[in-house]
Write a structure and sequence with these properties.
14 helices; Glyco_hydro_37_CS; mainly alpha; 7% strand; Glycosyltransferase; 2 domains
């Protein structure tokens, strides 16, 4: 069954031109992190070079109290707050991005894993050793407060520590984690690798699929479905058939999500094919790239066209190729 999944997975972006998207939900239900006037006001003020900065911040108080403070600011300023007003509001109601993590050093990290001993060239050996030390910089463990007060955070709580891509990407990402897990196993960090896969199993049981990344604003899109290959990595490295038995029903659940929500029937030359696609089913710009998306959408003269653009951007992000020339139209063709 799973083998067939890979046979039909052709990477296309799936948004029907002219489709009415007004009935679709926002990227998540949060009227702070995903949609609504507060998000629009803060993001369009351009307080930060990267829109992701704001939506990664922690609420100091409950969402309801924060919204009350926002409405008070808007009333006080006649719904035309200055950039300084908005910055003051954010400073008073949000903690900085990264507040969800505590210091953590991977307990299974090794200074000299076996693969380093096979690299004879001195320069390559030092480069690989530096690469191995990056695990110490990229490890993240969530504070207990995240589990206790999930409504104050945009991050999706997981029990086990994770390795993140780094930079602005402070949380786990789905398909990035496949390559990370391959590297962890090569570095003999089996407990960390297994813990990350266990996190994904838990997320599938809670949400029904694995989001693009570990934030609630990613909750309406996924990324290339690599959970089954992740389990294969664990199985091949540890020969742990019990791990597979324990999670086989969860793998089935994720597979069903993709086959139910991301496939279409295509007729070509008298033959019917099941084609999988990257496809977004939400309204609005990406919260983590809000201002950037809105600015690009100004080139379109109708809301329907803007929504179509937002959908294409989110579908491209779901593909993991956000962004490359793979999705460029060249001379009216799809050659890229």
């Amino acid at each position: 069954m799973y083998k067939n999944m890979w046979c039909v997975f052709v990477a296309i972006l799936g948004v029907a031109a002219g489709m009415d998207r007004s009935h679709l939900p926002p990227t998540c239900s949060s009227n702070i992190y995903c949609h609504g006037p507060l998000l629009d006001t803060v993001q369009m003020a351009g307080l930060y070079n990267d829109s992701k900065t704001f939506v990664d911040m922690k609420l100091k108080l409950s969402a309801n109290i924060t919204m009350d403070h926002f409405h008070e600011m808007m009333a006080r300023t006649g719904s035309h707050p200055t950039k300084a007003d908005i910055q003051e509001f954010v400073n008073q109601n949000f903690d900085p991005e990264g507040s969800e993590f505590e210091d953590w050093r991977p307990t299974d990290w090794k200074d000299n894993p076996a693969f380093l001993q096979n690299i004879k060239d001195p320069l390559l050996h030092e480069w690989a050793a530096d690469l191995n030390r990056l695990w110490l910089q990229l490890g993240r463990k969530m504070k207990p407060d995240v589990k206790a007060n999930q409504d104050l955070y945009s991050i999706i709580y997981v029990d086990n520590p994770v390795i993140v891509p780094g930079g602005r990407f402070r949380e786990f990402y789905y398909w990035d984690s496949y390559w990370i897990i391959k590297g962890l196993l090569l570095s003999e960090m089996r407990a960390t690798a297994r813990g990350m896969v266990s996190n994904f199993m838990d997320i599938v049981e809670r949400i029904g699929f694995i989001p693009n990344g570990g934030r609630i604003y990613y909750a309406m899109r996924s990324q290339p479905p690599l959970l089954i290959p992740m389990v294969k990595l664990i199985l091949d490295d540890m020969d742990d058939i019990e791990f597979l038995r324990q999670h086989i029903h969860t793998l089935d659940r994720e597979y069903d999500y993709w086959m139910t929500n991301h496939t279409i029937e295509v007729n070509h030359n008298g033959h019917r094919y099941t084609l999988a696609r990257y496809y977004d089913q939400s309204q609005g710009p990406r919260p983590e790239s809000y201002k950037e998306d809105v600015d690009v959408a100004r080139h379109f003269d109708t809301n329907d066209k803007k929504e179509e653009l937002y959908a294409e951007l989110k579908a491209a992000a779901e593909s993991g190729w956000d962004f490359s020339s793979r999705w460029f139209i060249l001379n009216g063709t799809n050659k890229g």
